[in-house]
Amino acid sequence: MLRGDRGTATVWAAGAIASLMVVVGLLLSLGSVIETRHRATSAADLAALAAAGRAGAGPVAACERARSVAVRMAVRLVGCRFERWDALVEVEADVPGLPGVCSAHARAGPVARRAAAAESHGPTWIEDGRSPSRAERSAPAVR
Predict the structure, then answer these.
(1) Could you tell me if residue 138 is inside a domain?
(2) Region 17-46: what's the mean pLDDT?
(3) What does the alpha-carbon distance between residue 134 and residue 129 come to, in Å, rounded to a whole number?
(4) What are the distances in angstroms from CA 131 to CA 28, 127, 128?
(5) CA 106, CA 88: separation in Å to the nearest integer?
(6) Which of 113, 116, 132, 143 could make an S-S bridge to 136, C-beta 3.0–4.6 Å?
(7) Interhelix angle for 8-53 vs 59-72, to 10°?
(8) What domain range includes position 81?
(9) pLDDT tens-digit profile of 49-98?
């Protein structure tokens, strides 16, 4: 029937196309997971900020506000609790087209607490908006 290498280019081309399709599929799946992880992280941050903003109304009202933000961001609020005035929030998001979930957690507290801490322990933020370096944090506060 066939003599020599006749038709092998077709087989190699089909194999190369199949391999390329697998790589593209893997890259699309990876992109979907990364996007979901970013969405979960952003939702956790926003939910924690929302809960911290309502901390004065009590933990139930604050966590309900965090749940509302999580629903708008298309994630599930898994946990919401308070440690003193800090809101600790955990969320999960389903990865579209793949089994599994991405989870994220965040912590937020009231700004007034930071200002009080700065008065008693020195500055927590440098005037230009950046965080202080280790050397700046370990240096004794000048009074």
Answers:
(1) no
(2) 94
(3) 16
(4) 36, 9, 9
(5) 6
(6) 132
(7) 150
(8) 14-121
(9) 999 988 888 889 999 999 999 999 999 999 999 988 889 999 999 998 88
